[in-house]
Design brief:
By secondary structure, the protein is of the alpha/beta class. Helices cover 40% and strands 19% of the residues. It contains 5 helices and 5 strands; from the N terminus they run αββαβααββα. A hairpin with a 2-residue loop joins strand 4 and strand 5 (120-126). Helix 3 packs antiparallel against helix 4 (88-102) and helix 4 packs antiparallel against helix 5.
Length: 166
């Protein structure tokens, strides 16, 4: 679903500020690499149900993060597209997808709510469709870029040579 995350962000913050939750303002993406259990926001998009779960679990601290699409993210994707080997049609299709994201520069592209319970982080995340498409396009572009190999090791991380244990 193509959400207006700015409206949702303001609604969530208003809800949190009028509740008994303490708000910890985190950095978006700050949970990457951590073991998290994600809320099914596709089938249950209401953040209030997520926060009600935190309340029933006895949690009072909610991590809140949001981020906006930055111009430099788009510039980097366009630069990588120019370096990548695509057919003319593939390049046009990716340029079109990146152009759609261009009109959202400065717009909120990600919201995260989280709480910790019994050594687990439970996370509610919302992203609009246009941002998911932008991330998918970036991933497609990155997947065809040659791996940087500044040391000439062959890119396998093993020194580039064949080694026998015999």
């Amino acid at each position: 679903m193509d959400l207006n995350l700015e409206t949702l962000k303001n609604e969530i913050l208003g809800y949190l500020e009028s509740s008994d939750f303490a708000i910890f303002r985190s950095h978006a993406g700050g949970l990457e690499g951590l073991p998290v259990i994600t809320w099914d926001s596709e089938r249950c998009p209401d953040y209030r149900a997520f926060l009600d779960t935190a309340r029933k679990a006895g949690e009072k601290l909610i991590l809140f993060a949001s981020r906006e699409l930055a111009e430099d993210e788009l510039d980097e994707a366009l630069e990588e597209l120019m370096e990548a080997q695509f057919t003319r049609d593939e390049r046009r299709e990716l340029e079109s997808r990146l152009a759609k994201a261009q009109k959202h520069v400065g717009a909120t592209c990600s919201l995260e709510l989280a709480f910790g319970h019994n050594s687990h982080l439970y996370v509610y995340e919302a992203r609009p469709d246009w941002y998911e498409d932008f991330l998918d396009a970036c991933e497609e572009i990155s997947s065809v870029l040659p791996m940087d190999d500044p040391e000439g090791t062959g890119g396998d991380g093993l020194g580039g040579g064949f080694y026998s244990n015999n």
